[in-house]
Amino acid sequence: MTSKTKLSDGVEGLFIKNTRFNTTLISFNFYLPLEAENYAANSLLPYLLTSCSEEYRTFRELNTELGNLYGATLTAGCSKLMDYQRINISISVINDRYSLDGDSVVSRAASLLASLIFAPSVENCAFRAADVEREKKQMLDRIMGEINDKRGYARAKAVKLMFGCDPFGMPRFGTAEDMEAVSAQALFAAWERMLRQSFVRINVIGESEQTAERVFSAAAAGFSAVARDNITKFLGYRLPALAEKSDTTERMDIAQGKLVMAFTTGYVDCERNTSALTVMADIFGGGPYSKLFMNVREKLSLCYYCACGIVKNKGFLLVDSGLEEKNAEKAKSEILRQLKALKDGEISDSEIDASICSICDSAKSVYDSAEGINLWYASRVFDDSVASPQEFSECIKKVTREDICAAAERVDLHTVYMLLPQEEK
Amino acid sequence: MNTTVFSDKALPERVYHTVLPNGLKIYVAEKPEFSSFFAVFGTKYGSIDTCFSRNGGEKISVPEGIAHYLEHKLFESEDGDAFSRFSETGASANAFTSFDRTCYLFSCADRFYDNLDILLDFVQSPYFTEQTVRKEQGIIGQEIRMYDDSPAWCVLFGMLEAMYEHHPIKIDIAGTVESIAKINADLLYSCYGTFYNPANMFVCIAGNVDAKEVIKRVQSAIKPSEPVAINRYQTPESDGIIKPYTEKEMAVAQPIFSLGFKEKCEGERSLFEFICSDMLLAAIAGDNSPLYERLIERGLVNDEFEAEYFQGNGYACPIFQGESRDPQAVAAEIKSEIERLKKEGIDQKLFESVRRSLYGSAIKRYNNVESIVMSLVDSAMSEHTPFEDIEILRNVTKEDVEARLALIRPENAVLSVIKPKV
Fold first, then answer.
1. What are the distances in angstroms from CA A229 to CA A37, A206, B154?
2. Mean pLDDT of chain B
3. Per the CB 3.0–4.6 Å rule, which of B105, B111, B238, B256 could disulfide with B89?
4. What pLDDT, on a 0 to 100 scale, did the predictor assign at position A425?
5. Average pLDDT over residues B175-196
């Protein structure tokens, strides 16, 4: 059961009743336009806000309180969603009946979260310099550390090459240069902008309506002290202006090569109108029944993984694989050959059935994870054409072979990026 | 055949447990409100089981990585592979091999019993030919290569190699490209025949099921087999380490480190001992410890810093790992914090915060069918009962936790570092 409440202009509370869990999850999601100039400050902001506050002046004090709240999990995050940047601050806490001394831990956790968002540790229109430096150092480590995960690094590189000047191509947390330049004042401005201008969705996932009402009224009170203006609005789906097509190879001291192929999907639209694309991408490189798994891995033994992921609302899909340099061309040809097979309608009934069955099975499990529910609803604030996982499954079940071929027909290779070992001297 | 029902006074959960006459252990957690199901069919057989004998026969040494190789090959049978059977039901199937276990699993939201039948059938139907075995070498070779580029993996094995002289824990789970080249169908059948007998195996399930019905279903699907007596051989391990420091260069942003303290260990730690050590590590290096605050304030670590109690049959060591511009300075700080705690003890408030935090984590585990099943697998592997950890966390004292400090000896520390390649 879900119920939505309007709390203020551009601020919504969504209560998703779920009695399966021993916990309550409260999640604040703020959506702002994806803009290069604010990107780094927006990325850092949720981490800074969840490190200390006016009430908990040091992160050790804050972490001690979280421990006392039976290891309440406080999470901060920042992600790209179409042309928007989503700032997320959440807390998950065990329900009161499980506390050892009958303590009201859910209320305490809810108040803690609200205080982190509305009453951070600031002075003279800036965050405290020591807090900013500490969190900046952490964030710079995260940014520089992206190279440690070669698969993720290669994928991000391909997206960057594909998107060129579009801010969607920005690295996950922004560039190190931009992060270095973020000041305590700029973060204060980002905090104000987040409260004043973002579209806000507060998700409460738990068993108690009363908890949700308390969270929503505390949030409404918090926002009543904020001059809301210039609120972020959904401007519709648009195909991004991409960079020129490119084929790039980079070398590094690594053992295994990484191949990433980025394809355009030809259109972006609401979820209801992109079901065929979802099924097509899944048959291409989803589960072990997919064409890439069956051929590039199982038949040709070229790799351990070769998979396809799709970003429907930004109009692209990524295929990636880890392999030996000598097999890269062979793998690339096979990937394109399998795409052509999809375009030519060489799709068996069992492939279609397996894919639809698997996608619907996963959708049905969304309600078994509070984090999964939160992500489901937080990713769809601008698109309620498919409100629930059940409705999504209904759309998927209607997809036909012709729909799949038509979706494949529009898929076009745009960027190839290879990360390869150093050449032997 | 008796079924035991386990429960905890705070939780509405029930776990049903039985042992079939052939020795197979079954654990079932009923989760009536859930849409999804999770099931594991596993064996007490992992990468460290490289030397063994069957039914008192001769000692067999097998190539490193064979347990993992067998896991890959078991998905194939004479009439097709298990993945294609699962693709008809929509389940998501997978498997993993660790140091001491191999688990085959699926998650699904529909057709649970069909999926259970597939799982029980394919794990009991080995089919290896020289041709199918050879085919896997390219795939697993690339899996090994993938781990060769993982700094977290390399730093751990660097530490284990500098710590253990004989114990096979130091061997990469998937073996090496060279060792897997020695694997053939006969060796796979030999390992299968030894370790995949019901007395060495377990089935763990959580979801909206009737436990009695599931137990009946499993019992009827298990093929008859002769009992097998397994002897595992381990070369005795000295108390000391091989060398205190090891390093390697890789393409990383800043140094990555792993600091471990080899503990004297015969057999396995009890659940109580494990929980006390786990709590001790949280008190030494957890999010609200004085050490963590000091290291963060000095810019010596970031939020990747963590501590883990790593233990199993014949090995135990607390491990502190993370990223740092100066791993030696972090190691010195950790050692001095341990010495301080040995003298001053753990702060009572910190102890209480750690205890509540771990208690909360144990409660949260029952939010998810997968985490429930994984904890049941731990029960099947280690002979402790479900919910036992929650009861321990209710009663554990600061003194119990402090007693574990004596096992951490500074002379047995190994620091492994991955340095950026310049």
1. 20, 31, 51
2. 95
3. B111
4. 62
5. 96
Would you say residue B358 has pLDDT above 90? yes
DSSP B198: G
Asked if the C-beta of B108 comes within 8 angstroms of chain A's C-beta atoms, the answer is yes
Contact A174, A253 (CB under 8 A): no
Token duo for residue B289? 């410890």
User: Which of A20, A256, A364 has the CB atom closest to B109's CB atom?
Assistant: A364
For residue B363, give the nearest of A22, A254, A256 by CB distance: A22
Q: How far is residue B253's CA from residue B250's CA, in Å, rounded to a whole number?
A: 9
- Whether chain A has a CB inside 8 Å of the CB on B149: the answer is yes
Q: Name which of A74-78, B100-104, B263-267 the model is least confident about.
A: B263-267
Pairing of strands A412-421, A246-252: parallel
- A288 at B interface, C-beta within 8 A: yes
For B365, which residue in chain A has the nearest alpha carbon?
A22
Interface test with B, best of A44, A132, A134, A148 (most B CBs within 10 A): A148
Chain B contacts in chain A segment 349-408 (CB below 8 A): 350, 353-354, 357-358, 360-362, 364-365, 367-370
A21 touches chain B (CB under 8 A): yes
Residues B39, B122 contacting (CB under 8 angstroms): no
Q: A217 vs A5, A13, A24, A213, CA distance in Å?
A: 10, 10, 17, 6
| pLDDT (mean) for A94-113 | 94
